[in-house]
Amino acid sequence: xxxxxxxxxxxxxxxxxxxxxxxxxxxxxxxxxxxxxxxxxxxxxxxxxxxxxxxxxxxxxxxxxxxxxxxxxxxxxxxxxxxxxxxxxxxxxxxxxxxxxxxxxxxxxxxxxxxxxxxxxxxxxxxxxxxxxxxxxxxxxxxxxxxxxxxxxxxxxxxxxxxxxxxxxxxxxxxxxxxxx
Length: 181
Prior knowledge:
This protein is α+β, with helices and mostly antiparallel strands. Helices cover 43% and strands 22% of the residues.
């Protein structure tokens, strides 16, 4: 960013914060670097939404952000680069770039911990149940299974499912709320 642009933003009351997240060691066979810029600019915030079909500004926009991710696969050396943009109603006093970077990272932890497990391990996307209340009922059962397994202290859901499939008595004990020991 140029010094001239930063000076213009400051003159009109804009606040820019930046944060960089580079974990010290590789995780899942890749090295990642994330950089987030958060801009709280009243002029830009007031314009967000005006170009859409309704043409009215979105009233609660407080910051615009840009995140750049770079991933390097350690085994192959392959590099991927991605830039995403977002908006938030959080003011810079409550969420600067560092805080927003952790919020985004926490979101993906939830996505990976819940939705990925439901989609891949429990096969939710391949389910053939499509009518009436049955899809909701089965989703509730899947959520119950995940909650029970996690409450029992398991960290690997797929492994736990295999264990309980091989030991139905332990599965019944888990459902009834008795101790597994």
